[in-house]
Task: inverse folding
């Protein structure tokens, strides 16, 4: 007699929690930054996470649908991002590379038109206007270039005020840059391991030291340094680490480096130290 088949998973276990978190994150982003942030930010995060998901499906890797993280309190964008959980082994280095790079590249591609439309609601305002409200954001290289293209040189004493779509595009670049950091279980860490295997640990250590230096710009990098220390110790092997990547993927890796260079924000929140001092009453 054959044993009874295992019970089929319920719809809640398959996608119910994902849908609930998606709705809660959408509401959190809508409340925080309006419809522009909601639609632009969600489009970028969906493209990023489904880039990973469909790459997993292509290689037959067991992975969940995206989990979104609502964060409506003390948040500039109403979310901490999203992630998928990979439950199966990675068959070889090519699969690891493709899964790792697909998310950032897809998210970056969607962030570009979001940024372009964001400039239609942007305007120059006096820098002093931020003393009465608003929050200064650090600019990645791509945003600086696009500002000059779409708005021309920034007049002296002025800065650019962005709306919800512009904030969504900025957030998309921030996510892309952070995920491409060459550390352990981050997307950039997957790519570096696929390229260098055991020698990737050297890159992890260099990136961690660089992150410690970035603490100079703001306290948020303390959190990232701790995460890097936890994530960057060692990358798990694939089932077949000996399979070569091929020249095409090396070219894509160089493209990923270029995307990282134009997306990364060394100082995302220039006023972070000042706000930190005000909250905790620190004087120095």
Result:
């Amino acid at each position: 007699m054959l044993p009874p088949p295992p019970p089929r998973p319920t719809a809640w276990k398959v996608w119910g929690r994902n849908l609930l978190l998606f709705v809660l994150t959408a509401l959190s982003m809508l409340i925080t930054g309006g419809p522009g942030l909601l639609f632009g930010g969600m489009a970028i995060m969906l493209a990023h996470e489904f880039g990973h998901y469909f790459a997993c499906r292509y290689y037959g890797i067991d992975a969940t649908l995206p989990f979104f993280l609502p964060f409506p309190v003390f948040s500039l964008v109403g979310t901490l991002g999203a992630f998928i959980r990979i439950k199966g082994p990675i068959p070889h280095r090519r699969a690891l590379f493709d899964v790792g790079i697909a998310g950032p590249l897809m998210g970056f591609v969607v962030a570009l038109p979001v940024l372009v439309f964001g400039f239609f609601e942007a305007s120059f305002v006096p820098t002093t206007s931020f003393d009465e409200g608003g929050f200064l954001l650090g600019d990645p290289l791509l945003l600086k270039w696009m500002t000059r293209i779409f708005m021309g040189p920034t007049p002296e004493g002025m800065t650019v005020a962005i709306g919800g779509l512009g904030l969504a595009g900025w957030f998309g670049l921030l996510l892309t840059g952070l995920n491409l950091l060459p550390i352990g279980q981050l997307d950039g860490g997957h790519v570096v391991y696929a390229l260098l295997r055991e020698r990737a640990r050297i890159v992890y250590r260099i990136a961690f030291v660089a992150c410690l230096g970035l603490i100079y710009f703001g306290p948020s990098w303390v959190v990232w340094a701790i995460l890097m220390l936890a994530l960057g110790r060692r990358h798990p092997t694939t089932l077949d680490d000996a399979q070569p990547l091929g020249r095409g993927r090396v070219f894509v890796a160089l493209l990923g480096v270029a995307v990282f260079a134009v997306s990364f924000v060394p100082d995302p929140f220039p006023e972070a130290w000042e706000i930190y001092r005000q909250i905790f009453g620190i004087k120095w």
Summary: Residues 276-284 have pLDDT under 50 and may be disordered.
